[in-house]
Amino acid sequence: MSHAPAKKVATEDAPAEEVDLTAANQIIDKYLTLPGNLMPVLQGIQDSYGFVPPPTVALVAERLNVYPSQIYGVLTFYSQFHLKPRGRYIIRVCVGTACHVQGAERIVETFFGKLGIGHAETSIDLRYTFEKVACLGACGMAPLAMVNDDTYGKMTVQKVDDIIAEYNQRPM
Amino acid sequence: MVNLTIDDKQVTVEKDATIYDAAKSAGIKIPILCHDKKLHPFGGCRMCLVEVEQMKGRLIPSCTTPATEGMIVRTSNEEILKARKLVLELLLLKHPVDCPVCDAAGDCDLQNLTYEYGVSKNPLQDEKFRWEIDYINPLIERDMNRCVHCGKCARICDEIVSFGAYTFINRGIDAKMGTAFDGPLDCEFCGSCVSVCPVGALLSRPFKFKARWWSMQKVKTVCSYCGTGCQLTLGVKDNKVLTTIYDENQGFHNGQLCTRGRWGYQFVNSEKRLTTPLIRKGNSLVEAGWDEALALVASKLREAKGAVAGLVTPRLTNEELFLFKKFFTDGLGCESIDHSAGYAHGALTEAAVKGLGQGASPSVIADIQKTDLLLVVKTDAYETHPVLGFEINLGVKRQGVNLRLVSDKKGKLSRLPGAQTLVHTPGSEVTLFNTLTNIIITEKLADAGAAALPGYELLVKGVAGYTPEKGAVATGLGADELTALAREYAAAEKALILLPLGLGYPGHNATLAQALLNLAILTGRIGKEGSGVLFLGEKNNSQGAVDMGIIPGAKGKDAAGIIAGCASGEIKALYIAGENPVVSYPDRKKVEAALEKVGFLVVQDLFLTETAAKADVVLPVCSFAEKDGTFTSVGRNVQKVTKAIKPVGTSKTDFEIFNKLFAEFTGKPLYLSSQAVFAEIAESVPGYAGLTWAKLGSNGIVRPVALSPKFVPVESVVSVPQPGKFALLTGSALNHSGTLSQYGEGPMMVCPEGYVEFGRDDAKKLGLIEKGTVTVTSDAGSVKLQVKLGNRLPAGVLFAPYHFGVNSINTVAVGAPVTWVNVAKAE
Question: Are residues B690 and B809 in the same domain?
Answer without folding.
Answer: no
